[in-house]
Amino acid sequence: MLKQLLAAASAVLMVLGTASYAQDGSSANALRDALAATTSLRGQFTQTLRDAEGEVIESSDGSFVLQRPGRFFWHTKTPFEQQLISDGDTIWLYDPDLMQVTVRPVNDNLKTTPAALLSESAEGLAEAFRITRSVGQDGHEVFGLAPINDDDSLFARLELEFDGPQLLRIVVHDSLRQTTEFALTDTERNKPVAAEQFTFDAPEGVDVLID
User: Fold this and answer.
1) CA–CA distance, 147 with 166 (Å, rounded to integer)
2) Alpha-carbon torsion 109, 119, 75, 194, what sign?
3) Among 1, 28, 122, 194, which residue has the least CB neighbours within 10 Å?
4) 143-179 burial code (b ≥16 CB/10 A, e <16)
5) What angle do CA 196, 95, 204 make, to 5 degrees?
6) Residue-wise over 1-16: b if at least 16 C-beta within 10 A, else e?
7) Which residues contact 15 (CB under 8 A, 6 or more apart)?
8) Per-residue pLDDT tens digits for 42-75
9) pLDDT for the residue 10
């Protein structure tokens, strides 16, 4: 599930950073317009993982905070608690039940995943992804992002669904034909966020694993 979480968080973050970019075609321009005014996003999520036949493998829910550039706090609350946190340079994965935190740097590979997506520069987004635009259910706008370099990505395709300026849904398609859907609710844009939200200090007794 870590792979899917990184993909979703990155996707939102990288796209949050798209103030302007010059990829040709109206799809890129429309995505820019949808996201240009957003510097931070917070809310609740429900995550559903499905296999290639569409059967539900597992589901979870929690809360999130995303801020450009590259910062996120992804808190899974049920069925098992986990926290995925990044300040843009380091990622912490904290498992309270196991009393351990895994620490890893944000390298180039992770920057092409969906939690970094919303924080990347506009030029970086246009260089890294092929962007398409379509109309989904209820007339919602759906943007598809396919990595240009498939070897370096954690996902095969990503979809972002909007109702006007409101981001409703993120869908991550992986190379095994599994899909992970993140339905976002109670979202708020551009609210102040304390810097401490995106760092992690291991509580006493927690094992620290360096990856």
Assistant:
1) 24
2) positive
3) 194
4) bbbbbeeeeebbbbbbbbbbeeeebbbbbbbbeeeeb
5) 65
6) eeebbbbbbbbbbbbb
7) 31, 35, 117, 118, 120, 125, 145, 160
8) 999 999 999 999 999 999 999 999 887 778 899 9
9) 59
pLDDT value at residue 71: 87
pTM given for the model: 0.79
Task: Quickly tell me which residue has 């059967």 as its tokens.
Answer: 55
Any idea of the CA torsion for 27, 158, 83, 69, to the nearest 10 degrees? -30
Residue 57: CB partners within 8 Å, gap ≥ 6?
49, 50, 51, 178
Phi first, then psi: give them for residue 128, nearest 5 degrees: -95, -20
Identity of the highest mean pLDDT range in 95-99, 122-126, 164-168, 174-178: 95-99
What single-letter amino acid sits at 55?
E
Paired residues of 166 in beta bridges? 163
pLDDT given at position 170: 87
d(CA 35, CA 141): 13
Q: What is the fold, at CATH topology level, of the domain defined by 2-210?
A: outer membrane lipoprotein receptor (LolB), chain A (2.50.20)
